[in-house]
Design a protein that fits this description.
The protein has about 270 residues and is mainly alpha-helical. The protein has helices at about 5-15, 20-35, 40-50, 55-65, 70-80, 85-100, 105-115, 120-135, 140-150, 155-165, 170-185, 190-200, 205-220, 220-235, 240-250, 255-265. It is globular.
């Protein structure tokens, strides 16, 4: 059984740490050894996309190989949505309903599609149906929060993101969206509180440190802002981190040429 395989557990550990290249290397081997296992296929194709190596053709091949594995079928709907093929995405979700039956996840998929085609009432109804089927679905609550966020309704989004992180304090994406929602309301003291809570529960991840720096900058705490962004850069090399450092250096009237060189090589 692949579930007892040491390499599978190593791959899952790499995935949790977002070490995509290391995970993909193991998943390639596991995919050959356990070619009939849909979960391995799913993790392999997801990781390929995360590394920019995925394609519609690859996913279609995996979907055809495992027609009764719902996560892959839902990924196909998500890809069609990403490609802005909205009618095809809706049709694929309808097919999933027919094959797999009603579920909270599929109603949420409907909600996400309706949100993208600017049908907020249908989206809200879909999310409500999803939550009625599974009140503990953080996926449904999170996407409902996203709808409010994208509409600029940051206070409503805050309450829903807060609900998600109370359900799962390890949901990094929900913590980030919660922090951004409060930041956009210019409630910087509350935003800083959420950053501290996120770091306490999810670790000192670079993205948390980046938002800590942004918040401290708004609070005129420039030294604290610089300290946070330097810590972020020690563990991540994203362009937004270098851009934040450059903005702080400009505020202090310092030379930014070295930081600009790093920015060019950042992800």
């Amino acid at each position: 059984m692949y579930t007892t395989n040491k390499e599978w557990h190593k791959a899952k550990d790499f995935l949790q740490k977002e070490e995509w290249k290391e995970a993909l290397s193991l998943l390639r081997v596991l995919r050959k050894e356990f070619s009939s296992e849909a979960e391995i296929e799913h993790e392999w194709i997801k990781t390929k996309f995360l590394l920019g190596e995925g394609s519609s053709e690859l996913l279609r091949s995996s979907v055809a190989k495992f027609p009764l594995y719902l996560p892959l079928q839902r990924d196909m709907s998500a890809l069609l949505l990403h490609e802005q093929k909205y009618e095809e995405a809706l049709e694929k979700t309808r097919e999933n309903f027919q094959v797999f039956g009603e579920s909270s996840e599929l109603w949420t998929d409907y909600g996400v599609i309706f949100r993208h085609i600017n049908k907020p009432f249908q989206a809200k109804s879909a999310y409500q149906r999803a939550i009625s089927l599974n009140p503990d679905s953080e996926f449904s609550w999170f996407n409902w929060a996203n709808m409010h966020f994208e509409a600029g309704e940051y206070s409503q989004a805050e309450q829903l993101y807060l609900r998600v992180v109370r359900m799962n304090e390890k949901n990094i994406e929900a913590w980030v969206q919660l922090i951004i929602s409060v930041f956009f309301t210019q409630e910087f003291v509350s935003a800083f509180h959420y950053v501290c809570e996120a770091k306490r529960r999810g670790g000192r991840l670079p993205i948390f440190l980046y938002w800590e720096s942004r918040i401290q900058q708004q609070r005129k705490n420039i030294e604290e802002a610089k300290h946070a962004i330097h810590l972020a850069l020690q563990n991540g090399n994203r362009k937004i981190y270098w851009e934040q450092l450059i903005s702080l250096l400009i505020l202090e009237g310092k030379d930014i040429s070295e930081a600009e060189e790093f920015l060019k090589r950042a992800q």
